[in-house]
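Colleagues,

For the teaching module next term, I've prepared a clean inverse folding example: a structure given as tokens, and then the sequence designed for it. I'd like students to try predicting residues themselves before seeing the answer, so please don't circulate the second half yet.
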């Protein structure tokens, strides 16, 4: 899979997408990287620690988040993306579900559109992504955790996301799928999609797992967001076993080390 100018080996390696939130109100790191210098420093740090992609987000999607205008979101993400692409040789994704923001980010140099609504919130998102020949990550989401049969409905939702991408002309080898941990699911359903990540792979696309510091970890361990590293690492380890091609994380260094160790063990045959 090509993302920007980088070929990703999705069969033999789990890649790391480092999170860069340029928001004042994200659940875990809101306000830390709203200034350009701080954002660039953190991006450089994540690259040194082994990130394969930097994911730039300008609007918090935490529970109860405050929506902002397209113009404000563009003002947050586009300058940061442009500077990262000037300074660093690394693919950049934009975390947005709005087509105007996505287009501005792609013009600024973004290589991937990471849409928490899987092209279902804004009818222009798929077309914009296709027009710029960008990669995309399509996440599962629902307004409420109401399902007939969870797995049947979940898979149908993901098939709809893929259909929208295909109909708009997004190239098959530029599609990632994300099960949407923490979005439109109960606690038990969140645990289930992590444990059964391989079900999503049945659709034939690489899968990204995004669990970093999320509430499912906090609820399980009874810990605040700044103490969820070990829980995140546990989900990364299971994700690798279940075939995750990417993990989206705040703590790049620790996750990269875990991935190296997991892959070394999984490749060993004793000969």
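(Answer key — instructors only)
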């Amino acid at each position: 899979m090509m993302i920007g100018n980088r070929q990703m080996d999705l069969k033999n390696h789990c890649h790391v997408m480092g999170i860069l939130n340029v928001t004042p109100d994200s659940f875990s790191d809101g306000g830390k990287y709203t200034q350009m210098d701080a954002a660039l420093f953190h991006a450089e740090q994540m690259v040194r620690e082994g990130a394969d992609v930097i994911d730039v987000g300008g609007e918090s999607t935490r529970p109860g988040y405050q929506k902002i205008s397209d113009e404000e979101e563009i003002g947050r993400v586009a300058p940061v993306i442009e500077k990262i692409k000037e300074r660093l040789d690394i693919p950049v994704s934009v975390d947005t579900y709005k087509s105007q923001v996505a287009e501005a980010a792609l013009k600024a140099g973004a290589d991937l559109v990471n849409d928490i609504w899987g092209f279902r919130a804004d009818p222009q998102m798929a077309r914009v992504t296709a027009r710029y020949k960008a990669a995309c990550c399509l996440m599962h989401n629902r307004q409420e955790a109401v399902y007939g049969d969870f797995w049947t409905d979940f898979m149908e939702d993901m098939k709809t996301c893929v259909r929208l991408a295909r109909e708009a002309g997004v190239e098959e080898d530029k599609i990632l799928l994300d099960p949407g941990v923490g979005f439109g699911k109960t606690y038990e359903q969140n645990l289930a999609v992590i444990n059964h990540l391989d079900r999503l792979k049945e659709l034939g696309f690489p899968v990204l797992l995004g669990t970093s510091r999320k509430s499912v970890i906090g609820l399980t361990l009874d810990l605040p967001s700044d103490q969820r590293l070990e829980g995140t690492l546990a989900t990364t380890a299971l994700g690798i076993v279940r075939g995750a091609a990417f993990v989206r994380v705040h703590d790049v260094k620790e996750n990269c080390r875990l991935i190296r160790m997991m892959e070394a063990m999984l490749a060993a045959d004793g000969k």
